[in-house]
Design brief:
The protein is α/β, with parallel strands linked by helices. Helix content is about 45%, strand content about 20%.
Length: about 325
Amino acid sequence: MQSNQPTISVIVPAYNVENYIAESLESLVNQTVYPDEVIIIDDGSTDSTLKIIESFDFPFKSTVISTDNRGQGRARNLGMEKSESDYLYFFDSDDILDSRFIEFAKEKSSRSPSPDLLLFSGEVFHDDEGFTGKRVSSYKRGFSGDRLSVNKTLSGFLNEGRWDVAACLYMVKRELITNNALSFHSWHHEDTQIFYQLLAVASRVTVSNKVFFYRRIRRNSIMTMSFNKNHAIGSRLLIESLIEIANARSSTYWKEFITRSMKLSIEPYIRSCRYSGTKIDLSIIMKMLSQAKSPKLYIWATLILINKDAINIIRKLKG
């Protein structure tokens, strides 16, 4: 490994994952090139998660922090505060990394000028073969490129018709977060919000269609839980963030990207409000529609608000 390569911290929030944490940490220990440090935050686990973590003998610098249960977002923020590395990677404590990930990340981030964001692909696997929840089966980027401009990156997203926002599917330059005072909020959809915020302040993005991350789909995880009030709050915060970004970014690519992102955000917001009994804030929806100035978005939002079955009707018509 070259001595001038950038340093990488892996930040791992963990909560009640005694059946999975060992396999996840093994995937870090088995890297062909080690991370410079791993920071593990046990977020108030009530099972043997912390005991398993403390029993590990890491061949690289490691820090284990135990806190009261405050949520994944705050745990990640604490890990960021403790890190001094050039790049941050947020790894979930029940998932698995390809053994070549850190080697790949070091090589890509060593190129000059260095990328602000390094996006890569992922796949999913089911912990319980009987689980039938409807989830994304693949996190393939669909394109690759070194140190792309943000507009070219957005163009790639729009051409593919998808963009995966999970924090475990990218590595970020630490100063991009600290210089812009960004952090994860404490509600659901925190991954989505900060991803858009990072794109809005980034200059160079490296994208790889190679798979380096394997997400475990299991029962009783954040990924598979039913809608609740935290989803509603997080969805509203996401919409507010999209409106703010739309006010600051005016390129054609940004306009189309934000409009599509707004469309994706409306349904989860309204559904989570209805499921949790949270009052729908029509003013924030109207503000979003006013900003987007998209007739299609207006129709989509109106149909969802008028009739919750409208979504299924539209999907059937499209199909």
